[in-house]
Amino acid sequence: MDFRVYLLRCRDNSLYCGYTKNLDNRLEKHNKGTASKYTSRRRPVRLVYFEEQETISSAMKREIQIKKFSKKEKELLVKNQQLNLI
Predict the structure, then answer these.
(1) By Cβ atoms counted within 10 A, which residue in 8, 28, 53, 71 is the most buried?
(2) In this predicted structure, what is the pLDDT of residue 1?
(3) DSSP for 29-74?
(4) What is the 8-class DSSP label of residue 8?
(5) pLDDT tens digit string along 13-27?
(6) Could you tell me the pTM of the whole model?
(7) How far apart are CA 74 and CA 10, in angstroms?
């Protein structure tokens, strides 16, 4: 089982962190307003970062870790992933 920890950029430029087993489905739910109270008021959202984790436990731990990051640290995650895609 692969889980993904992800960051979404909201309409107000805030970043939302979560984890899921099915990233496409979860993103669709966020944009429909049914995934979380936070993102439902900040739609549309777009995926700007994700990483894979092998277990739900590791995904939950990583999500907690990222949620404790400052906005600047989260933006660095996004920037570094974008650089790796080039």
Answers:
(1) 8
(2) 65
(3) HHHHT-S-HHHHTS-S-EEEEEEEESSHHHHHHHHHHHHTS-HHHH
(4) E
(5) 999 999 999 999 999
(6) 0.93
(7) 13
